[in-house]
Amino acid sequence: MRKLRIRLRVKLLMSFLVVILLSLSAVGIAFYTISARQLEQSTENQMTQIVNNAVHHTNLYLSSYQRSMVALLSNLSVKKYIDLPSDREEYENYRYMTDIRDSIVDPVWIRNPEISALYIIGYNGNALYYFNGGTEPSFAPKDTAEQIEYFKSHTDESGRLTIINHTIQGENAAPMLTLIRRIRGLSSSDMKGFVGIEVKSEELSTLWKGIDLGEDSYFFIVDDKGRIQYHTDPSKVGKMISGKLTDEMTQAGTSMFRSSAEGSKRAYISRKADYSGWNLVVSIPNSQLVKPLETTRMLIWIVAALTFFCALFLANRFGKSVTNPIRSLMKGMSQTEKGNWEFIPLPKRHDEITELIVRYNLMVNRLSELVDIVYQSELKNREMQAERQKAEFQSLQLQINPHFLYNTLETVVCYAVIQDSDEISEIVGALSYMLHYSVRTNLEEITVANELKHVMYFMVIINHRIGRTFEIDMRVSPDLLLRKMVRLTLQPLVENVFQHAFRYGVEDHHTIIIDAGEEEDGFWVSVEDNGCGMTHERLEELRAKLSENRLADDEEEGRLKGGIGVANVHRRIQLVFGEEYGLTVESSLEQGTKMIMRMPRSAVDNHTKGAANASSKPELLPPGFAGNERFVAGWITQQ
């Protein structure tokens, strides 16, 4: 038996080592190869996307200025002004300047407030200059002539938009980008002058300041002459790039290339903007590109070594864990023959494991018997618990104080003796309905409409008892009338108002409001009055009793005089819907009390509900409720 245990442990150890070495080798080689390819492709895609986005936004930015120039090119006043002779009258020049400013220039300032200057210059020396804030320089005819010569040599003769680093505002002005193109006059198709817009260079550079490529990586823009117009390092703006780098960018086109033109080996990728003809270039150190690969390679070696030694240790421990516990289990199984769930077939060989299985199978019969006994016992306990809960609920529902019924019968007798009126029929009818509604002791859930109907019949009797008509303000929305709630929970709260809130009698200013609404995971029904309210101590005492989740028994402060206790209502809601629901109380002394019943929201099928509740729908509303328009509308909806 000892030789068998040693062979099994060695065999397990060797098998584990072979599997581990093969797995680590295959995974390491495949992971490194795929990672290297994916990282390089991902870096190139990232750089390409950055440059493409920068080019796209630059073109969109410049196209907005192009549209402003189109408005100038197509304006008749501009074309007429270009055709004016050089010996024009000063008034004529002023008139055109004012007209063009009002019709074109001012709207351009509104659309593009970042434009610094706008000017129209004719070959014959006519020139209009507009400046957006700041000091406006003045130009002599000589200055205008120099500008005309400069623009003739730096613009496209066909009238195509040209972007140059130039400004007419002098050397002290901020760096500007000038967007300029030639314009035809009204009298002929020949080019007669220029239309130009100047924008501060910093306005354009804001498009690219947010680009972050990592440490020692940067983004720069080069014009068609090789001059840097924007760089993450401000000290390099305005300098020329090397001719070698320019040639390599031209040869690479839109592909990524590596170069040492800036002293260290770096990766570059560039795109040319449509409007400006500038190259937008991203540069990343080559060491940054290969660093993830080196890190990955080192990590693979470290993880492989750690995994190998950990696997070697675990394999050895696992071999021992398979063989060493067998003899201990053989001794212990004879004392634990009480439990498992199925038989295990015996193998053909005979060793420690076989002996363990034999003893295991001896326990299966006992386990099945014990499990069956425990299951039957648990099932019996659950049935007893359900019966106990049902009995408790029925007991709670039947706890109706007959005091109200005695008072009602006494009122009926008095009316019968004193006068012969329909009031007796009204009271007896309401009492009959309430008795019929109250004696139902089943655990079914009824609707808000049923409870409101019960309250209305209750109010018929109350109005005769107090000798005046008192109407309840029912604000329940019609779409909530078919929500489920517990029987005999709303009327006791209303009765409580007359017993406690209006303890000195009902006055003209007294009101009772019944409202309902939906919450995120349920709905609520509230009864609010403007009666005497409760002190803070009395309110806390009542809340404490509700938190105990039990009936108040015979304690009068926990019960509703003449009805069902507050704790009773609270507990019955919990028994039906769960401990998270029930009754909450809000009250202020001399300001009134609000009792809120919270219940879960339940889906209502109008078709099935209509059939199920057909027998409980009244034909007519009880007297005294004709003025409640919202509830009447809901009652009609229920019908």
Automatic annotation (TrEMBL):
SUPFAM superfamilies: ATPase domain of HSP90 chaperone/DNA topoisomerase II/histidine kinase, HAMP domain-like. It is found in: Cell membrane. InterPro entries: Bact_2-comp_sensor_kinase, dCache_1, HAMP_dom, HATPase_C_sf, HATPase_dom, His_kinase_dom, Sig_transdc_His_kin_internal. It comes from the Bacteria. It catalyses: ATP + protein L-histidine = ADP + protein N-phospho-L-histidine. CDD domains: HAMP (cd06225), PDC2_MCP_like (cd12912). It is a multi-pass membrane protein. One of its GO terms (molecular function) is kinase activity. Residues 606-625 are annotated as: Disordered. The keyword Transferase applies. Residues 417-603 form the Histidine kinase domain. The keyword Membrane applies. Keywords: ATP-binding, Cell membrane, Kinase, Membrane, Nucleotide-binding, Phosphoprotein, Transferase, Transmembrane, Transmembrane helix, Two-component regulatory system. Residues 320-372 form the HAMP domain. This is histidine kinase. It comes from Paenibacillus dokdonensis.
